[in-house]
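Q: Here's a chain of 261 amino acids. Please give me its 3D structure as C-alpha cells.
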Amino acid sequence: MKNPVPQAASLLLEKLLLLVHVRPLPAGSGGETTPPPPPPAPGYYDTSCFKRGDLLEVPRTLFIHFGIYLGENRVAHLMPDILPAFTGDRRQIQQVVTNKRLILGVITKTASIRVDTVEDFAYGGSILVNHMDRLFQDQVLGSEEAARRAEKLVGATAYSLLWNNCEHFVTYCRYGAPVSFQTDKFCETIKMIIRDQRSVLASVLVGLASIVCLEKSFSSWNALHAIHALTRSRAMIAFLSSQRRIQWCRHQGLKLRFISF
C-alpha cells in the first residue's frame, strides 16, 4: 500500500502553486480569458552583478522560484506548461506562459525548461543571488559547469511538485544533486499535522475507553451493592421469622402453664 503522505502533500502543493502563480482576472472581465499584465521593461534589473551560472531566487507569496543565470540577461528556469506536449514550435512555446497553460501543465505533470529574460523570470519580484551556497558549502560546481548543465536541459520535461520542480532543476545544475528544501519542509509540516491529529485521536480513544471502564466499574459496584442489600434483606427476614417463632413458642408455653395451674 502506498504511503498517503506524499500524495496528500503533492495535492496540497498543487493547490498552493496555483494560488501563487495564477493571477486573478480584473474586475468586470466577465470571466473572459485575458493576457497577464506585462512584465517590467528591459533594464528594470541591474544584471551587472549577475555572473553566468549564478543561482537566482525570487521569493513569491508562498514559495520561491528558482533559475540559473546564463548571461546576457537570460535565465533558464523550469515552469509547468502543457504546450510543449502538443507542439515543438519554439516561438509559441517561448510566449509568456498563461494561467491556462500553467494549470494544465500542473494537472498533466508536464513542464518545460525555458530561457527568459530576467524581467520575465522575476516578474517584478526581488532577486537573491546564490543564497543556497551556504547550505552546500564545498559542493558548489563551477559557474560554467552549472550554466552548461542548464542549457543542456532546456526543452520539454516531466513535472512533479515533489520530485522535479524548479528547485530540483537549479540544485542539480549548481550543486550536482536535485533537492528541494521547501518541498521537504512542507512534507514535514504535513507529517507533523498528521501526527498531531493521530495524537488527538489517541487521546479521544483513551478518554472514551476510560469512560466505558468507569461505567462498567460503576455498574459492577451497583450490582455488588444490590446483592449485598438483598443478602441483608434475606437475613433480616430470616431473623424476623425466627423472632416470631420464639414469640409464638413463648406464647404457647404461657398458655400451657396457665391451663396446668
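Q: Can you summarize the key feature?
A: The first helix runs from residue 4 to 21.
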